[in-house]
Each structure stands twice: as structure tokens, then as C-alpha cells.
Design brief:
Length: 239
């Protein structure tokens, strides 16, 4: 039904471009700097273990996980998990990404507020991100976004939008978490001389590209939310 709506199509196309371009950017940037070896020749695993030890986080494990760009910090298991190219690699990208994930471990240990907030939001977001779109689709089938919609359809539509809004809020809470982790990573890489000035410039490019994937995802989610709100408000004005 909404594939006939020019505004909906515009949001979808703009969103796909918005998400696709940063994804290609980060893939190409990481691939480029995976080929640039660091002068010190330390692997991502070694750098991660060193940063964690320097911050008193000897109980945080550094583990290898399958996949490409699958690197993450698991707060439940207190583990920094690195993909093979990052775990074993001695490149600028390997060191930068390993340091970024250690930044998340440091945030967790220090109770960085956006991390605490994001963790508290997870149950509601998991519920809202699955049920919200289902309610929105159900409201669409009942005509909940049209001026002739019954009150039940309108109520279902608003419930779906509010639940989806929780997922959108989660994306925006994630932004300071990711940016702060990158900031911590770059600071330690510079102050502890893990990278020289030229290598640090490459690390900044890797982490900047990665940050834009989170920004793009948040903006696309917001665009979709605003579209639904706009259509619902429009249906009320038509009544």
C-alpha cells in the first residue's frame, strides 16, 4: 500500500543510500588499513591485552570470534571479541579496532552513563523493535494511516510508532557510546605510543568511517519514525 506513496518511497530510497554508503566506506577503509602494518608489529590481541592490563581490567578476556567486522565487547561475559583479521593482524586497522573494543570495556568498568542507560533500555528495545513494526503493519492493513481509519486502527498505529520510537532512541543513545569508545582508543594509542603519527592518522580514518555507520543507521531509523508520525498526524487533521 505505502509503496504507492511517493514520500514513503523517498524515505526508503534515501535511507538505503544513507546506510549503504557508510557501510561501503568502512569496508573499504578497513580493507585499506588492514594492509598497512604498524612499526611495532603488535597484533590486535596483544594491543587489547596490554590496554586492558593498563586499565586494571585483567579479568576481561580477549577472544577470537568468527566473521568479518564482527568485533565487539560482550559486557555479560566481560570479553573483548575480535574477528580473525583483527585478533591476529598487526595492521593499523587491527590495532585501531582492538583499541576501540577495549574502550567499551573501560566504559563498562567505569560505569559510563550512556552505557548504563543503553543496557537498561535493552529489554524494552527488544520488545519494541519486534512488536512495534508488527503493530504498524497491522494498522496499515486496517487503514490506520488514512483519514477514514477507525479509532482502533489509529490506536494500534500510535502504539506501534511509540514502540518503534524506543528502538530509534536506542540508536541515538548508542552514538555517544561509540564515539566515546573511539575517543578513548585514539587517546591511548597516542599517549602510549602504540602507533606513530602517520599510523594514528590511519586509525582515525578507520574509526571515523565506523562511526558514520552508526550515525547513518540512527538517521534512517529517525526518518522512518518521522514518516509514521507525519502520516498519523495527517490522518488526524483530515478527520
Amino acid at each position: 500500500m505505502y509503496f504507492n506513496d511517493p514520500l514513503y518511497l523517498l524515505v526508503m530510497i534515501a535511507g538505503m543510500i544513507l546506510v549503504f554508503v557508510p557501510q561501503m566506506w568502512v569496508k573499504n577503509t578497513v580493507a585499506q588499513f588492514l594492509e598497512v602494518r604498524t612499526g611495532r608489529g603488535r597484533s590486535g590481541r596483544e594491543v587489547a591485552q596490554s590496554i586492558l592490563a593498563e586499565n586494571g581490567l585483567v579479568n576481561v578476556a580477549v577472544q577470537m570470534v568468527d566473521g568479518e567486522l564482527s568485533d565487539h565487547y560482550d559486557p555479560a561475559e566481560r570479553a573483548v571479541r575480535l574477528s580473525p583479521a583483527i585478533y591476529q593482524g598487526t595492521s593499523v586497522a587491527s590495532v585501531a579496532i582492538a583499541a576501540h573494543e577495549c574502550g567499551h570495556a573501560i566504559q563498562h568498568a567505569k560505569g559510563y552513563y550512556p552505557v548504563v542507560l543503553r543496557s537498561a533500555m535493552v529489554p524494552a528495545v527488544n520488545f519494541g523493535s519486534s512488536l512495534g513494526p508488527m503493530l504498524i503493519m497491522g494498522a496499515m492493513m486496517l487503514g490506520g494511516f488514512s483519514h477514514a481509519a477507525p479509532s482502533l486502527a489509529i490506536t494500534i498505529a500510535w502504539a506501534g510508532v511509540i514502540l518503534y520510537g524506543l528502538a530509534v532512541a536506542f540508536h541515538f543513545v548508542t552514538l555517544p557510546v561509540e564515539l566515546d569508545a573511539s575517543g578513548r582508543a585514539l587517546k591511548v594509542l597516542e599517549t602510549q605510543s602504540y602507533l606513530n603519527r602517520e599510523e594514528l592518522s590511519g586509525a582515525k580514518k578507520v574509526l571515523t568511517a565506523a562511526a558514520f555507520t552508526y550515525i547513518a543507521t540512527a538517521m534512517y531509523a529517525l526518518m522512518q519514525l518521522l514518516y509514521y508520525v507525519f502520516r498519523l498526524m495527517g490522518s488526524r487533521r483530515d478527520d
